[in-house]
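hey so i finally got around to running the thing on that chain from the lab meeting. sorry it took forever, my laptop kept dying and i had to restart like 3 times. anyway pasting the input first so we r on the same page abt which one it is
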Amino acid sequence: MIAGMDADSVAGYFRSKSILITGSTGFLGKVLVEKILRVQPDVKKLFLLIRAPDVESAKLRIQTEVTGREIFRVLKENHGVGFDNFIEEKICPLVGNIMKENFGLDNSQLKEFSKDIDIIISGAATTNFFERYDVAFDTNVLGAKHVCTFAKKCPKLKMLLHVSTGAKS
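ok and heres what got predicted. didnt touch it at all, straight out
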């Protein structure tokens, strides 16, 4: 929680904000996406960075790995037949990868997209403690570095929240 803020003021803070979320297909990521959409339906846009070959594949990943999950049941019941339209309006898939500089976006995409971001929630990471060192390093260290580098290019950015994986001793 943001220091000095209760749950209602945090939800209010997200109103009309555009938020980039990395790691949205992970356990915490999908919980976060659902919670934001449920408690603050007036969020402007959730940009979800998704590893995929194209936008259609990214949309399919979001449907199967995020919004199609049981955790979205309450939101689906609340919106009824308007659920798909609500999701289409609020969630924007962004095809990219945190392991690549600028998420692998070309300069025109990067410039257009970066000017809209108010908040970045960086949750992408490997949580496999048996992952090869180079893969874990690229995801958990270089990925965080790329998010920070991107954040510097966002003129409206008000907050960067980084969620780290646990460490095994």
